[in-house]
């Protein structure tokens, strides 16, 4: 049986179609992604709960992946220290070929049977941690062997795959099987599969950060003040939360204490 991700596109003779016809058809296919994710939310919730429990007990989160999915996981992890003030090393990505080769399409590295576990082992992976494999096909050797080794060492595992009953899902304690159907261009899993992976990565990391207390209300109270835009956002956030009318006063407090959360805690402590 041909895996869903390799099945022929529902569209043909693409080279004969107009720009309008192509974009309309791609958009129709993209509409299917959110629905596919909705159908697996119970699986996603189980995975997120497992990640939160590990991190609350001093563990770490590791994504392992190759190709588009692996690169998307790197981008997700890169954002977290700035957006949520999360210390580096808690949320991690292991990309086939290395994260420093992000812009290189090292697809041949997905067949490496040893790199994933070697890299995890070098990071002193332990039973306190959780490892989530990302593979559209559900059979990527780099991911599969990494998860196999994790299970052999009693390390919790999860996965995000796009085919049912895959061998990678069989190695996951918390599998997420999001079935988006054949791709618009046959086998081009950077399309719907990649879109689903991006949406799931956003959903997982954002929910985990909220559960870890790194959001208050709907605000990024731990955001790093890395540029003028974020500084201005932080100042206005602090003004609203602390009921400070003077912009410069709020900015001075924010610069002094580094984050909105720290500034608010200091103000509350001084008030008490």
From TrEMBL:
Q: What is its EC number?
A: 4.2.1.126
PANTHER family given in the database record: GLUCOKINASE REGULATORY PROTEIN
Q: Does the keyword Iron-sulfur apply?
A: no
Say if the entry is tagged with keyword Lyase: yes
What GO molecular function annotation could you give as one example from this UniProt entry?
Answer: lyase activity
Give every SIS domain span. Answer: 51-214
The protein's name in its UniProt record: N-acetylmuramic acid 6-phosphate etherase
Give the PROSITE patterns listed for this entry. Answer: SIS
Task: Name the UniProt key words of this record, in alphabetical order.
Answer: Carbohydrate metabolism, Lyase
User: Which domain of life, per UniProt?
Assistant: Bacteria
Q: State the organism named in the record.
A: Pedobacter panaciterrae
